[in-house]
Design brief:
2 copies of one chain form a homodimer. Chain A is of the alpha/beta class. In chain A, 37% of the residues lie in helices and 14% in strands. A 7-stranded mixed sheet of chain A has the order 2-8-7-6-5-3-4, sandwiched between helices. In chain A, strands 9-12-11 form a 3-stranded antiparallel sheet, covered by helices on one side. In chain A, helix 4 runs parallel beside helix 10, helix 5 crosses helix 6 and helix 11 runs parallel beside helix 13. Chains A and B meet through helix 1, helix 3, helix 5, helix 6 and helix 9 of A and helix 1, helix 3, helix 5, helix 6 and helix 9 of B.
């Protein structure tokens, strides 16, 4: 029997999805499972997008251009212009989700053995894409004590070697919800220029910023045109994860033309998703106001609820729809399994994602979980009750982090 | 300015798409261009598939399972059962086109530096996927003189080294249209077992076999369950290339679970494409009868038409909708460019794909072009006239291959 590749063996399982079989078992027992494990929003897709494929009447569902339909790319350029970002459609490549955009960026800019620096905890699948491309992730650890703010520049410089080719950030961050300030991004710019590094930024949660905070994009950093590659996606913006439509955006012509060769090999991004995505550009602004208000309320509910539970610590995220909470447990992964396998409260339980998969070193984040607040407030309240009850009876309960920082007093 | 990756530099341009700017120029001059360069069929997508997304009314366009919707996977299992192939839905992973299925197979089974043997000429993007994964393609050359039949087993054995992990075939073949016999596949089975190699088979053109010939699938080879990985796609079968839906199929559990990790990293295949794909399974058999008859007539028209032109040689393909023709020209790539830039006949011209991109060594196939007979017969006739007139006046005309083989007498 032929053997599996070493790469295939090293490829990490998704921490977001690997507990799914336990959730399925719990459901078979008749239990309600509150899914706070995955960023699959329950927010309705804008009607304009749903209408678009209903009214799409092609004779043949054809390939699009490898970089996406031109009319759509022009529409995306206008979307950026409205945000104050000057981008030509020829600098925008439509991809199969943000995932593919990041993979193309990695493959166009880094070879196997090259290094990318990422502040951790980071979106777990970055590990997967790095593994696919043979790229080495060097993490710079941000901590729950500082609310996951950008680590000092010295921490980045410690990680820089002759193999370092890029820095990757997610802003606002998955899994932390941290929103980088303009000043923090200027710091990253300095490092990128000083060491001639690419700056990759995953900004798929751009629209989800709370407390009147404004998102500042890497595309707005001056003098960094050759360094910046933006990863974007419509999955979260318009609640249409299943469309599998994203974008790679860069003013660096060589990066663009190289990424296009990878894009040509896979022929084209999905045609139906692009039809829906192009229509979604006409989503009324009122949709975002409503959605933002909803997420903001959910965040307040979940963060204050978590911090009220004895021993639980959760910084207040400035954006996206995730937070990282520290729990008074021996091992968060064991706890998450136990929640699904052995626990129920009024025939309900909750599915969380152990946060260790979001660190380069799984020993970190051992007491942390990622929570996606993508369910209605009533469900979030029930999930919080489950969690509170569970922590009363979990056999592996231990003493907690101190609530010492002002960041934790969000109530 | 940071540098591009070596991989990115080595990544080949798609030979199918790289002449597109010349075609666009020709169109700007008001010329009609007959596109025989790309396998984008003009055949209509089955109505059941078009109706499906019209009637799909989700509140939210959600991610699917990373391996695809279970109902769809069960539907695909039934599709295979109807072909006489016993496959469980748990052995079927829905992918983003056949492209992704092959990429997952490569990454799950081969590491960088490992070798895959492919009979050439082969689908050009195999080079791209190999480059993406750092895999080395070792070609076994099939020739136009034998109508592109499987090279003898000794030619495969010559290429086998300690790094060889797999053989990849496309059946029926793109770009040759060659349909492998059961005996040829049994030969490949022998090699796979003797050297413990994976056998990857791209069978996306399975339905397109002519002259009452029957397709024999690698999935029907007995005793090869651990070796076979099937790459499939609905792009050509139902003329819905833009849906971006394919499948990886294997009875090897370890390959499946490894590929699933790569699938999890990219979250899910396109939801809308899966809705259309699942409905397409109900396409009436009469659709395929009609389509097959149409392609069969187009093939007869194009192959006999080509062989009638002085100096042109084209074997008669048994399946798919491509053929490779040898032309009496100095350099097929120059000729293809010249057709678009400098030639017109009654204000029309034809776009062909130079075949050198379908060989591991671009020096091979220097006089050959790939022709996709995906246009209506009237257009094919006009395209043939253009080609005939072009060859009368092309400055780089040279003497031709002899029409010595009986394979060439298809008229």
């Amino acid at each position: 029997m032929p053997t599996i590749s070493t790469k295939g063996k090293l490829m990490p399982e998704s921490p977001i999805r690997k507990l799914v079989p336990f959730a399925e078992e719990a459901k078979k027992k008749g239990r309600t499972v509150y899914h706070l494990n995955i960023g699959q929003p329950d927010i309705e897709t804008p009607q304009v997008a749903l209408d678009a494929f209903k009214n799409f009447k092609p004779g043949v569902i054809e390939y699009s251009h490898s970089a996406g339909n031109e009319s759509y790319r022009k529409g995306i350029a206008k979307y950026y212009k409205d945000l104050g970002i000057e981008i030509n459609h020829s600098q925008i490549m439509v991809t199969t989700g943000g995932s593919e955009a990041l993979l193309f960026a990695f493959m166009s800019c880094l070879d196997a053995g090259d290094e990318v620096i990422i502040p951790e905890p980071f979106y777990a699948n970055y590990n997967g894409f790095a593994c696919s491309s043979g790229i080495v992730v060097k993490a710079v650890t941000s901590t729950i004590e500082t609310g996951f703010s950008l680590p000092p520049i010295s921490e980045f410089e410690k990680q820089i070697t002759s193999k370092t080719k890029a820095i990757l950030i997610c802003n606002p961050g998955n899994p932390t919800g941290y929103l980088y300030s303009k000043e923090e991004l200027e710091t990253l710019k300095e490092i990128a220029i000083k060491y001639d590094l690419y700056l990759f930024a995953d900004e798929v949660y751009r629209e989800f910023c709370y407390d009147e905070k404004k998102h500042f994009s890497v595309m707005s950093l001056s003098g960094l045109d050759e360094h910046v590659v933006l990863v974007d996606s419509i999955s979260k913006r318009y609640s249409m994860c299943g469309a599998r439509v994203g974008a790679l955006v860069t003013r660096n012509k060589e990066v663009f033309s190289t990424a296009l060769k990878f894009a040509q090999a896979r022929l084209s991004p999905p045609t139906l998703g692009q039809v829906a995505g192009e229509a979604a550009l006409n989503t009324p602004l009122s949709y975002f106001d409503k959605v933002n208000k909803e997420y903001s309320q959910r965040r307040d509910l979940i963060v204050s609820g978590l911090n009220r539970i004895e021993g639980v610590v959760c910084p207040n995220p400035g954006g996206a729809f995730y937070c990282i909470a520290s729990l008074p447990v021996d091992d968060a992964e064991n706890f998450c399994k136990w929640l699904l396998q052995d626990f129920e409260y009024q025939n309900q339980t909750v599915m969380l994602t152990p946060a260790n998969g979001f660190y380069s070193d799984p020993a970190l984040g051992k007491q942390e979980v990622r929570i996606a607040y993508v369910l209605k407030k009533e469900s979030l309240e029930k999930a919080l009750s489950c969690l509170e009850e569970a922590l009363k009876v979990y056999p592996g309960k231990i003493s907690s982090l101190k609530k010492s920082s002002p960041l934790f007093s969000v109530e």
